[in-house]
Amino acid sequence: LDPPLDYLYSSPFYRCLQTLEPAVEQLRPGIKVRAENGIGEWYGVANFDHPSPAAPAFLKSLFPSSFDDTYQASLIPPPAGETVSQLHDRVAVALAHIIASVDAESTTRNTSVLICTHAATLIAIGRTLTGNMPDDPNVDDFLAPTAGITKFVRRQSPKVDVSKPSGHEMAKSIEPVDWRDGKGIAGGWTCVLNGNCDHLTGGAERSWHFSGEETFNDLEPGQKIVSAKAGKVLSLSGQVYRMAWKSRI
Question: Which region holds residue 108: left if phi is over 0, alpha if psi is between -120 and 50, else beta?
């Protein structure tokens, strides 16, 4: 990689950590994977709790050499799911935390961060980093094929301030992020590689995109879970996310 990999973040769901495992030592010997719930899977709004990732201690037992069990996630997504808009805002907060943490820790301007995540979250990452939220969230702006690679380059790289608090301290003070209308996160980013699959023999497969809101609130007991019709409007109130440090009190 150019520049060489400095930080490695992943969704805490097992399938993402498992995907990374064979490549971790080849990417950079000794690097640890930081499991960040804020870039975890997206589930639509429901009247029940969706599946959640395993506890860090258990994940450490599965990936003893690569999993960083000292890292504290910036936020925990709501267990009963989110709207598409809430997903994007949640991802923006998580990215703001990741970037602030890396800025505080890094001693060089040419810092490389790799993130392993899910299709819906990847699309939200592209939109929040660039600040470009389409009027129709179902459009194929950022591609999300299986094992695809998307690369972003920062528009403005601020000078490193070594006096900044650590990432764990900064997680407590992160506020909702104003990223829309081209602002992006931390100065904004440019997409220079979009869902590239040149490394795969068979090319791109199973590219995913949004198809309206996903809701499970109308399910009857015993009814199978199905996706809602595209475009269904939900009216929600309450907290979009809760900070991880609060949830552990």
Answer: beta
The distance of Cα 61 from the centroid of its chain, to the nearest Å, equals 23
Is pTM beyond 0.90? Reply is no
pLDDT in tens, 182-231: 999 999 999 999 999 999 999 999 999 999 998 877 655 454 444 333 32
Parallel, antiparallel, or unpaired for β 149-154 and 189-196? antiparallel
Q: What is the pLDDT of residue 115?
A: 97
CB count in 10 Å sphere of residue 62: 13
Residue 58 has pLDDT above 70, yes or no: yes
**Is the peptide bond preceding residue 3 cis, with omega within 30 degrees of 0?**
yes
For residue 186, give Cα distances in angstroms to 113, 161, 182, 189, 246.
Answer: 15, 14, 12, 8, 24
